[in-house]
Amino acid sequence: MNNILNFLEKLGASARSSLSGLGSCTRLFFLTIIYSSDSFKRFNLTIKEIYFTGVLSLVIIIVSAFFVGMVLGLQGYYTLEKYGSSEAIGVLVALALVRELGPVVTALLFAGRAGTAITAEIGLMKTTEQLSAMEMMAVSPIARIVAPRFWAGMISMPILATIFSMVGILGGYFIAVLVIGVDDGAFWSQMQANVDFHNDIVDGAIKSLVFGFACTLIALYQGLVAPPTAEGVSRATTKTVVISSLSVLGLDFVLTSFMFV
Questions:
Q1: For burial by CB atoms within 10 Å, which of 33, 168, 177, 240 has the most?
Q2: Is the pLDDT of residue 46 over 80?
Q3: Among 233, 223, 237, 220, which Cα is nearest to 28's?
Q4: How far is Cα 109 from Cα 91, in angstroms, rounded to an integer?
């Protein structure tokens, strides 16, 4: 009986902690929106963070996208060939990337590269009391530190997801057309005829925006609440990757249910 009570007590404490964290994260979002006007007055800060979160992530995005596209082209060709539809390989690659793999894989890579860097940077500022020093000088850390990084993540994610999908399609083209020998015209014409701008491309862009919002906000929140120790910052960066990855996969299911069903 005591074991059951202890389990229920721990479960309740965990649920309460999760709800408290969700409430604090929501509060951080609204504060970020309120202080965004002050942040936009010095938009060079946001530009700097776009370079940090977006441009510096291009290498891993491009390399990963090319290999993902090649794998899709290879696997898709041998699957479609069994049904005599190998010319539809362009449609398979494009839809898989634009609808799902582009936004999802980009978000996972973004969380692992840029999200952890944001958390570690803010956690280190908290550890060295730079955030407290800003408050003493009447400078809002939300306007100076959080808002530029938030908007940089929101701007960078859709662009990175678009680049991922484009490079992935080129990877599929390389394998299917240049290596295997699928007809060039059939590859592109089938893709153009079956990929819809609104139902596929726009919905994929909406996904990337939502994932960028979730990953960036989680990274910022974990950095702000990280204990001011080396171990605390390390745990916060780990939590950023885990929570962001699970959030992306969960949100992907919810958004897909509304968009494509």
A1: 168
A2: yes
A3: 220
A4: 24
User: For the residues 122-129, what does the mean pLDDT come to?
Assistant: 87
Alpha-carbon distance values, 24 to 190, 221, 239 (Å): 48, 8, 16
Give the pLDDT confidence of 50-72 residue by residue, as tens digits: 998 888 899 999 999 999 999 99
Q: At what angle do helices 116-127 and 230-259 cross, to 10 degrees?
A: 140
Pick from 106, 108, 91: nearest CA to 169: 91
DSSP string, 156-217: HHHHHHHHHHHHHHHHHHIIIIIII---HHHHHHHHHHH--IIIIIIHHHHHHHHHHHHHHH
Instruction: Please say whether the beta carbons of 219 and 240 come within 8 A.
Output: yes
Contacts of 124 (CB under 8 A, 6+ apart): 233
Give the Cα separation of 128 and 137 in Å (integer): 16
Which pTM does this prediction carry? 0.88
Q: How far apart are CA 213 and CA 185, in angstroms?
A: 38
Q: What is the pLDDT of residues 64-112, one digit of tens each?
A: 999 999 999 888 888 888 877 777 888 888 999 998 899 999 999 999 9
Closest alpha carbon to 93 in 195, 180, 178: 195
Tell me the H-state helices in 54-88: 58-81
